Amino acid sequence: MRYKHFKNADVKVSCLAVGTWAIGGKNYGPVDREGSIRAIRRMVDLGVNLIDTAPCYGNGTAEKIVGEAIRTIPRDKILLSTKFGLVPDVFKGDFRKEATYKNAMREVESSLMNLDTDYIDFYFVHWPDVNTPICETMSALADLKRMGKIRYVGVSNFTQEQIEEAEKYLTVDVQQPPFSMVERQYEQLMSWGASRGIDSMTYGSMGAGILSGKYRDTPDFEPGDLRLTFYDYFREPKFSKIQELLKTMDEIAGEHKCPVSQVALNWSTQKDFVGTALVGVRSEAHADENCAAFEWELSEAEILLLDNELERLGL
């Protein structure tokens, strides 16, 4: 496993992290609870030291699975990341953004209980809440740090301007934007953050699975599957463009005698502005495959070839 030093947080983080959105069990395909627990433990065994989750992933389900998975692991061997501010709305069947002081205090206690831990390492504002003054949100995070319930402050899906406003009240240690070979619109934001010591935990790092090479034909996902509604990778014209990209990735994977997924992971994590890539795992075999990516690196020529192909395809 490779590691990077997070500057503002002053902590060493594995370049690969466990993402748990899918294991929440809502609109992301079938979930094997026991298999997920074994996969998380296997990732830790292979050197991964960060697990990211959120209470809205299955209304607490993902957090509880993480809590069970880490029960036998010494707490100081792992870093836990979770979030607040995205609350299920039972009337609309959706979520509402609520980053108030009161809700932060409510959600942190729920997450601590679900995770069965005394503290959270990275605590994120999940989405900007335009109805709550950022000073109120950051005040809550500052108090949680003083109480020892959280260690580091994060923001997810924030713009540069929103981060700058938040930092008027409290240092932001990390940010969490989407980033992968097929989602590059936040590269400038991540580079800017890195220059200020705000490291990035990237989500959607495998393009909802399309960069694994598993989907060569349009998949038959269930209606409402988040891979169709939240992302656009399985819709035209992007789907066909990604299939062209996969041909180049196939050639590189063939040279290294590795799965296509490892090409995608190395392309992302070899970027200076990427702190760690959050990747979902559903089995021990999946964990082994992902972690094996860090036994080798792409050459500069291979990265240039991929970058040129991305530009040619307009991805």
TrEMBL record:
Gene3D superfamilies in the record: NADP-dependent oxidoreductase domain (3.20.20.100)
Residue span, NADP-dependent oxidoreductase domain: 16-307
- The portions of this protein that span the membrane are none
Q: Does the keyword Oxidoreductase apply?
A: yes
Q: Pfam families from the xrefs? A: Aldo_ket_red
Q: Which GO terms describe its molecular function?
A: oxidoreductase activity
> Which Gene Ontology cellular component terms are annotated?
cytosol
Q: Which UniProt keywords apply?
A: Oxidoreductase
Q: Which InterPro entries match?
A: AKR_Detox_Biosynth (IPR050523), Aldo/ket_reductase_CS (IPR018170), NAD(P)_OxRdtase_dom_sf (IPR036812), NADP_OxRdtase_dom (IPR023210)
Cited PANTHER family: NAD(P)-LINKED OXIDOREDUCTASE SUPERFAMILY PROTEIN, NADH-SPECIFIC METHYLGLYOXAL REDUCTASE-RELATED
Q: What is this protein called?
A: Aldo/keto reductase
Name the species this protein comes from.
Answer: Eisenbergiella tayi
